Amino acid sequence: MKRKTGLIAALDTQNAATAQVWAQAVAPSAGAVKLGLEFAYAAGFQAVADVAGTTPLFLDLKLHDIPNTVAAAIKSLSTLRPKMLTLHASGGLAMMEAARKACDEAFPADARPALLAVTVLTSLDDHALAETGVMDGARAQVLRLGKLAMQAGIDGLVCSAHELAPLRDTLGDAPLLVTPGIRPAGSQAGDQKRIMTPRQASEAGADWIVVGRPITQAADPAAAAAAIAAELAA
Question: pTM for this one?
Answer without folding.
Answer: 0.93
